[in-house]
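To whoever is on call:

I kicked off a structure prediction for a single chain this morning and the downstream step that reads the tokens threw a length-mismatch warning. I double-checked the sequence; it's 414 residues and nothing unusual in it as far as I can see. Pasting both halves so you can look.
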Amino acid sequence: MKDTAPTTLALVDPDEIRTRFCAALSAMYRAEVPLYADLLAIVARVNAGAADAASTPARVDIERHGAIRLGTPAELAMMGRAFAVMGMEPVGYYDLAPAGVPVHSTAFRPVSEAALARNPFRVFCSLLRLDLIADPDLRAEAAAILATRQIFRAEAVALIERNEAQGGLNEAEADNFVAALLETFRWHEEMLVDRATYERLVASHRLVADIVAFRGPHINHLTPRVLDIDAAQAAMVAQGLDTKESIEGPPRRVVPILLRQTSFKALTESVRFAGDTGAPGQHTARFGEIEQRGAALTPKGRALYDDLLAKASSADAAQPYAQRLAGAFESFPDDLETLVSEGLIYVRRMAHGALEPLTYEDFLPVSAAGIFQSNLGNEQRETYAQQGAQSVFEDALGRAVLDPFALYAEMAEG
């Protein structure tokens, strides 16, 4: 695409481009992972029967979050520019290394109330920590492999640059952008590496293999929002899906808080190794996840949440974790009046004077790591000695990530 002359046609709202991309991504993932369609059907049934379905915001029906894993700073920087076309900004820094996952991440999402109401599509975007690969030879080999790939189509890059030059895209450009960027998220059966290299990458960490061995960052899950995740979990089990044994996040509550997640376990899919004319290999990475969102916690509320989560984790291991979790969270108030009076959640004041909790729009490091680990095989539970490197991540991205607490405080103040 060589013509970069400014357009004179009307520009498409970034919210609309985001909605088009989200719909296209969902259709592609449904075709690639048929079980995703089963998951959507379960969520639709549960949401239709939920007690508060009548008062649910319209956005719930289209709400999705996805996740991708990138290999290089250059990939992260361009991906940030691509999400900017759709009105999505990087919010929060997530260090997954303490949970044994060699990545650090941010969430690209809309940040204004109007944009969130239009379509709250989010992408949890992780960057590989090459420095956490212990074997220096494998680390260098992984870097060399990643340096050879180009995950963005030339047309997508040209349209990102045009968006930046003219302040948006017109109708035709917006549709072309969606189609071109979608290819970055598509599954590719053909790998960049041979079988022996793949096995060395897997031996380092399954996530390293998932990032380094492929031509691009295939979408590894796409998550609809459900109003009753306990009912959805039961329905998944009843339907015979290979479901996680437990729900990640806080226990069931009268006033839901933060985020609860579950998933069916990762699928084993056919792959072809570079230069290999024999039988296909197998790779396990992509899965189906659902989530239930509750109230956003203030820093005080989050500190209490973290303390109680640590208490549940360190309690008598002979007791089932779900019981330990429920017991620990008896100390967390579960009525709206107390949550507000103690300053534990963010709320907005409605026109008639009532208070409404602000929906938590972000992610939980512990839940994210739990989902990652359960879908990569439970044999890898080591932690990494090095901790997060937010400044390194932000240097790669080319900008600072936004503070989610500041965003919620601004929304609460109206």
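Update from on-call: the warning came from a stale cache, not from the record. Cleared it. Sanity check on the structure: The mean pLDDT is 89.
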